[in-house]
Amino acid sequence: MIMWRFLSRWRRHQASANQADALNAAIIQGSTAVAIIATGCNGVISLFNSGAEAMLGYRADELVGIKTPAMFHDANEMRDHARTLEVEYGVHVGGFEVIVHMAKMAGHETKPWTYIRKDGSQLRVSLAVTALQDAQGQISGYMGIANDISAYSALQDELSISQLSFLNAFATAAHGMAVVAPNGRLRDVNISLCEMVGYSHDELLATDFQGITHPDDLAEDLSYVQRCLSGALSSYQLEKRYVHRDGRVIYALLSVSLVRDRHQEPLYFISHVQDLTARHTAKQRLREREQQLQTIVDAVVDAIITINANGEIERFNHAAEQLFGYPEGAVQGQPVSMLLPEALRNRRHAGFAPMQQVRGPLSALPEIEGQRADGSHFWMEVQLAPLAHATEFKQVAVVRDITERRRVERMKEEFISTVSHELRTPLTAIAGSLDLVVTGVMGSLNSEQEQLLTIAQRNSQRLSYLINDLLDMDRLVSGSIDLTIEAHDLAPIVTESISLNSSYAAQFGVSYRLHGQCPEEVMVDAARLQQVLANFLSNAAKFSPENSVVDIVMEDRGLYARISVLDSGAGIPEAKWNKLFAKFSQLDSSDTRQRSGTGLGLAITKALAECMQARVGYAPREPHGSAFYIDLLKKTKVPQAMT
Q1: What is the mean pLDDT of the chain?
Q2: Does pTM surpass 0.90?
Q3: Which are the contacts of 364, defined by CB distance < 8 A and separation ≥ 6?
Q4: Is residue 569 left, alpha or beta, with left meaning phi > 0 and alpha meaning psi from -120 to 50?
Q5: Are 298 and 317 in contact (CB under 8 A)?
Q6: DSSP 8-state secondary structure symbol assigned to residue 545
Q7: In terms of CATH architecture, what is 25-152?
Q8: Fold assignment, 486-642
């Protein structure tokens, strides 16, 4: 009976043990997410579960009782670990012992390893090795449990690269950067921020951002910080001021973002600080300059109007308000044509209309009529100049009331015309009489009489030239001068002009020399062209050094044929260039040889040229001297209406 009970209990215990073994085996084999591998003390594999098969690609029957785990470990990695064990613990191990040595010593070790699959691909695992012991506490084998950490390792690698990239960007950024704790303490700063505010790295880490912020900007900055910490904002940007170590103000653009942990708790702020001091200083100087310019514009006596690309008024200075009778606010945004009489507003080329096509330097419009706010009309002179602007085309118009000037000029012209006509008749009689006496028609003269009468004859001729100039100018101004514009060969006209003026040049010890040619005919009045050339040639002779040569050059200029008269005199000061072709303008009134003329020659020359659709001009010569030229339309280029 006792034996039967003992056998019964033993059978139940054995059944229970067998059941537990079966359960354990089922669990081990069913763990497909992890590789479970058991070995004996010699390293030969005794267990290779289904998870190991799936992870490494081997079947259990290929390895169990045959191979050790060293076969699917990375050989280089095992060799490196063996050297580490030798250095740190002074042991010399190899093969399978490299994998289990620490478990043998400590009972357990977890370490990342690289497995080599059957297909040769690599797999990163976290391997936990445990030393198995028998009932007597002796090591009977080893069990390894491996988890696939490839994705985790890749993520760690990416994170490491990202951290290195951030640290590199942080350290080398051209603008200031800082890592700021939620309480404002500076946890890290880069060299650019140190240089910006004048403190060392350690000095900044000993303070907070409040300590370097301008007091007037601190409240706004702290308000943004609180809104970020409360979750209302994740980032913010503002322009603020910092205080440099030496006390000066640094203007900056601050960009801040808050970094939180996985529980959404604030970790730190990342701050980017861009130095705007230079830009702020430049803007301040620009504002000051604009204020100065505006003060000057408001103080000048001429009306100054700024006009945009659409022909609308933008600025209207104080003088413009007085001239036109409008306050600036009443004309801003209005078309500039409102300043013209109704009859001129719709004309394509009237008044200010051409100014939208003006792109070059300062240019003058013809004298035109303006209209005031009260409807009254007046004559005005307008100078236009483009304004350099980054985004659109603008112009400034300088307007001057010339009503009184026109009235005076008209009176002067009427007076000159009347006087010239009244003087011409008696002067002709005086000149004729003097010619008769000087030539001996009235009898012989002694030397003293001849000298005095010759002086009187020469001055009567000068007076006659003056009256002729005055009458020519009068006819040009009134539009009553007659011109016969025909096609002419240029060379004969130029040659004849040189011949007619050679005796005059000889008085000054000057000769003429002709260069070049123009094969095409030009459209001119031959007599008036000779008058123009006579003015250029006589001026060149008067102002050239004795025994010098004046060059006359003919050349083809495309649409025009150009005749240039080049002298080697002292030249004309730049300040007088814009008055050369004005009435009563002297080329050199201070000349000690008394060679000044009437002051009308170049004005008549310009007017005659314009009547022939030609153009005259001046250019200085290097190192000294002057070049006067006239450009004449070629016959083949002239509009059909002229022919």
Answers
A1: 82
A2: no
A3: 381, 382, 383, 384
A4: beta
A5: yes
A6: P
A7: 2-Layer Sandwich (3.30)
A8: Heat Shock Protein 90 (3.30.565)
